[in-house]
Design a protein that fits this description.
Structural class: mainly beta
Largest sheet: 7 strands, mixed
Shape: globular
Number of strands: 11
Oligomer: single chain
Radius of gyration: 13 Å
Distance between the termini: 41 Å
Order of helices and strands: EEEEEEEEEEE
Strand content: over 45%
Helix content: under 10%
């Protein structure tokens, strides 16, 4: 019984900022992988950013490097995605996901648990 709940999405003008949150409820191992993925209508889901909760690994898609920051609050079992300098092409449904199995990857099919998503819309 593991649940992920995203929040923080909304509408913002280009150049603005949003911070997404993802709370994990239920069982969590000592360390695990968490990631943010996004999907625009008619497009494939893509990995945006990820981390391992031991703090030793992070990942950013090239398209968001320098603009997005992934972080965690282990005490709250919460993942964050700070999104700055947002662009219209960042628009999409953003999902958080957790992977409890071994091995680093941002392949969505390898992640065990998913939230329902939060919409991010960036206008010109």
């Amino acid at each position: 019984q593991v649940q992920l709940v995203e929040s923080g999405g909304g509408s913002v003008q280009a150049g603005g900022s949003l911070r997404l949150s993802c709370a994990v409820y239920g069982y969590t191992p000592s360390n695990y992988y968490m990631g943010w993925f996004r999907q625009a209508p008619g497009k494939e889901r893509e990995g945006v950013a990820g981390l391992h909760t031991d703090g030793r690994r992070t990942y950013y898609a090239d398209s968001v490097k320098g603009r997005f920051t992934i972080s965690q609050d282990n005490a709250k079992n919460t993942l964050y995605l700070q999104m700055d300098s947002l662009k219209p092409e960042d628009t999409g449904m953003y999902f958080c996901a957790a992977k409890y199995t071994l091995g680093w990857t941002m392949r969505s099919s390898e992640y065990n648990y998913w939230g329902q998503g939060t919409q991010v819309t960036v206008s010109s």
